[in-house]
Design brief:
67 residues, mainly alpha, 3 helices, 0% strand, flat
Length: 67
Amino acid sequence: MRSRDIPVVSAVAEAGADDRIFDSLLLVGPLVIGMIVVLGRSPVTEAVAIAYIAAFVVYTLYRGVQT
């Protein structure tokens, strides 16, 4: 089974910007939120959330400057 066979992933891949990294960041966002809900607020979950937001912002700015 490929990742594109999963219904949510295939929908994002088809509607996305043809950019695997951006699509991956969009799919990981809800997982980060779910992790925070399940594990609660702690230094570890805060670090994961900050890293995710930083990666998303940096990659978006990088792609904006590149094109």
